[in-house]
Amino acid sequence: MSRTRVLGFESSCDETGVALIEVDGDAPPRLLAQALHSQIAMHQAYGGVVPELASRDHVRRVLPLTREVLSQSGLSLADVDLVAYTQGPGLAGALLVGAGVAVSLAAALDVPALPVHHLEGHLLSPFLSADAPEFPFVALLVSGGHTQLMRVEDVGRYEILGETIDDAAGEAFDKSAKLLGLPYPGGPHLARLAEFGNPEAYALPRPLLHSGKPDFSFAGLKTAVLTQVKKVGDSPCEQTRADLAASTQAAIVEVLVKKSLLALKDTGLKRLVVAGGVGANAKLREQLNAACAKRGVRVHYPELSLCTDNGAMIAMAAALRVQRGLARPRRDGGFEVRPRWDLAEAGQA
Ligand code: KG4
Ligand code: ZN
Question: Is the CB of 309 under 6 A from ligand 1?
Answer without folding.
Answer: yes
